[in-house]
Amino acid sequence: MMDKYLIVLEKTETGFSAYSPDVWGCVATGETLETTLENMRSALVFHLQDNESIPQPRGIDAYLDALRESEGEEFYLTHIGVEVLK
């Protein structure tokens, strides 16, 4: 089964950073949006495979929280689908 996790991408001085409000401690960076998304997908898979309890993705409230909490002047919201086999 594939779950979709909210991803917040923020513009930095050297590229982009990303995190998921649903998966604490899971972050990624990259020089481009595409690279950052690829790195974030890999980080999510690695993080979720290593974690015994997989967090359930949240709904619209996560979007609203991410909008309020984002510190970047330029940021994007998206979802990444991740399938983790246990």
Automatic annotation (TrEMBL):
Signal peptide: none annotated. It comes from the Bacteria. Residues 5-66 form the HicB-like antitoxin of toxin-antitoxin system domain. This is Uncharacterized protein family UPF0150.
